[in-house]
Amino acid sequence: MCGKVDDASTRSVSPDASHTARKDNTTNQNKGKGVSIRKGSFKRILKLGEGMFGKVSEAYVREHHSDSFHCAIKTAAPCKKEARAMVRKRCQGEAAAGRRVTAKARHQFMEEAMAFTENYAQRLVSNEATALAENDHPNLIKAYHMLTNSAGTVVAFTMYLVSGGDVHELIGDFANGRSDKPATWKRALMPISAILDVMIPISSACAAMHANNWVHLEGAYEFAAPELAGPQRWELLDLRKADVFSAAKMLLFMILLQNFQPCGSFDQEMNLWKGILPENVDAIIKLRACGKGLYGKLLDLAESGTRLNPYERPTMEQFVTSLKVIEREHKEKQQLWSKTEALFKRPKKRTDLPQTG
Predict the structure, then answer these.
(1) CATH for the 34-81+90-159 domain, from 3.40.50.720, 3.30.200.20, 3.90.920.10, 3.40.640.10
(2) Which portions of the sequence form the region Disordered (predicted)?
(3) Which of 266, 258, 89, 58 is nearest to 173 (CA)?
């Protein structure tokens, strides 16, 4: 891919030629030139996203602004909200033990929590940059440079800037197409062709990095599709070291389960998936508890690929077959529901009957 990322903050990598198609305002960028970038030599333009331990921004290299070299830069940025939650939990533990928490102690707790989150954020950024360097796939995002501070600690890295929508927007488009249905109507499956357009290249990229023990562990799945002439190119981002969940399971959870957001009282349960982490087992239990039929089958399908051994994951043919079975059963349930609903509809009042005084 781009070679192994090292601590040299001035090491440059030439962008891949297949990744040069962008929107009109950046079509001519990344002309295969290796661009040296140093800490402080880039200018942030727009914040693209922010999580618990980092943020991604669009930026350009100051000295190469004439070449329109735009990139995405991911920076370790510990979240104060997470640190406050840690302090609050610690204070509750102290109070439960009968110890009084002073303002000075709370301040010390906050400093320790911020130090922990900062170290954790830097470790995540370093691991992701390493993962992008060690894995090479056409549908895996390209990383260019690793930026370090004076102590040699990784603080950020730059990568190819991808334009286009993500999977959440794609799912939203299909969901919005059913906005004319009653509020109690279950959302329909995305077409098999639309799912496969995402799943085939992404699954291939996941399999490539899964063999090297890299996988997605956070729920903030980011898939983006540049506006290319022809089929969309789906890029896989946001890597973590493999732990409990496999790539196949997380893909199914984040892509498929969001297509079945139920109505009414189940909405709050499904919202748990917006920020799910692998250790959040309670969210899985709650989802299974509220999952009737279709949800349970999707979970069973997902759990068939939970082992880290790549040979235990279902093949693409098995996956497609399972999807088609689920889609057929889902349509049959919808048809059965429509027939049942019609049986209980109140008959229209007849107007041709003689009126009695």
Answers:
(1) 3.30.200.20
(2) 1-35
(3) 258
